[in-house]
Fold:
Amino acid sequence: MNLNNFKQSYVSLVEGQNWTRMMLAVAIVALLIAVFSLATKTERVVLSPVTLTDDAWVEENSASESYKTGWGAYLGMLMGNITPNKLLFIKERLEPLLAPDIYTETMQAYEAQAKDLRDNRIALRFELRSVDYEPKTDKIFAYGYRYATGSGAKEEQRSERTYEFKIRIRKYTPEITSINTYEGKPRTQKMLRMMNRSEGNNS
Structure:
C-alpha cells in the first residue's frame, strides 16, 4: 500500500467529517430557529365580513380597523334598536362582551334604562349612518338617527345619536372596555377641540 496515498485519503476523510459536522451544526441551529419562530408566531385569522367592503383580520391580542368598525356597527345597531320585548335578548348578547372593569356599572345603567322603557312603553329605532375608527384614541363611533316612540305617541321623535366604544382583543375575542352614548355627532378629538374653542369664545 502506498503510504502517501493512505495519508491523503485519511486527511480527506477527516476534513470531510469536519465539514459534515459543521453543516450538521448549522442545520441544527437553523432548525431550532425555525421551531422557535413557529412556536412564538401569533396566528392571524382573515375574515370577510358581509357588511364591509374590506377584509378584516384578528390576531390573539389585536385586530384590524375594519374588524373593530364591524363590531362597532353591530353594537350600535344592537343597542339602538330596543323594544320592551327585546330587552332580555340584548342583555344576553351584551353581557359576555363586557370587560370586568365596566360590567357592573354598564349592567346597572342598562337595567335602569330597561325599566324606564318598560314602564313608559318606549321603543327605540336606530338608523346607522356611519361608523368611524380613531386610531389615536382607539375609539369606534357608530353614528346615525335614533327614532323614539312611546305609548300614545302619533309620530316618531328623531334625534342624532352616537354610540362610542373602545374594544380590545383578548385571545381572539372582542372585549368592550368603554361604552358611551350621547346626542349629536361623534366626539372625535377634532370635534372636541372645536367644542372647547366654541365654549371659550362664548365665555
In short: Strands lie at 45-47, 56-58, 123-134, 139-149, 157-170, 173-183. Residues 2 and 8 are 10 Å apart (CA to CA).
